[in-house]
Every structure is written in C-alpha cells, then in structure tokens.
Write a structure and sequence with these properties.
This protein has about 130 residues and is α+β, with helices and mostly antiparallel strands. It is built from 3 helices and 9 strands.
Length: about 130
C-alpha cells in the first residue's frame, strides 16, 4: 500500500498535495482498497466554498458508500470531471490521475492539523 511521504492526510482518508496556494485532494490508497471497484462519484461544483470537515461529495463501490470530506478550507477551483467516464482511475492511480478536487487554500496554516505519512500509517496500522 502506497502512502507518499510528501502528502498530508486526514483521518477520513483524504490526501492533500499543496501546489502554491492550492491544495489537490483525493482519496488514499487505503480508502480505495477498502472500497473496492468504484461505481459512482459525486463531486462539487467549481466555485463552492468548503469548510474543514464539510462533506463535498460521495463515492460508492459495490461494497460500500462513503461521504468525501474537505480536509482544508477554501474555494473549489477545479474538479476532475474526467473521472466520471473512467472511475477505475481512482483505484488505479489515487495519488495521480485519480485526484478529485483542487481548492484555493484560505490559510496554509490549516495544513498543520493534517497527518504526516508516518502518522497516517500509524493511524491506519499500515506496515511499511
């Protein structure tokens, strides 16, 4: 299971990659493996403002359904609409082409409440 060191993580299994004043967000390898084959995805509209821990969408598989939660506060500036035609991308490349949304960060200091890769591995009891 891949947990890249350069990312930050939420306890609800979203990852965050900071690019300038924006944060790219997706679900972790752990989350996609627990879900299995994804069959449905709901994402927010560009322009929506999200608070930390606010549900911003939903993801469903043949095994389970789960809300998606904003790990940071800010405005949605991009949505990965290519996923609707290729949901398997989330399973195959959750940290790359399987990204979900991009948010313009209100305050970069809010990243401090997120978990490091090592903290996330301990939280989810993932062995290296």
């Amino acid at each position: 299971m891949r947990i890249p060191n350069e990312l930050r993580y939420s306890r609800t299994d979203e990852w965050v990659r900071v690019e300038g004043d924006e944060a790219v967000i997706g679900i972790t390898d752990y989350a996609q493996s627990e879900l299995g084959d994804i069959v449905y995805l709901e994402l927010p509209e560009v322009g929506r403002y999200l608070q930390v821990d606010e549900p911003f969408g939903a993801i469903e598989s043949v095994k389970a359904a789960s809300d998606l939660y904003a790990p940071v506060e800010g405005e949605v500036v991009a949505v990965n609409n290519t996923l609707h035609a290729a949901l398997e991308t989330i399973n195959e490349d959750p940290y790359g082409a399987g990204w979900l949304i991009r948010i313009r960060l209100k305050d970069p200091a809010q990243l401090n409440h997120l978990l490091s890769a090592d903290e996330y591995k301990r939280y989810r009891q993932i062995e290296d």
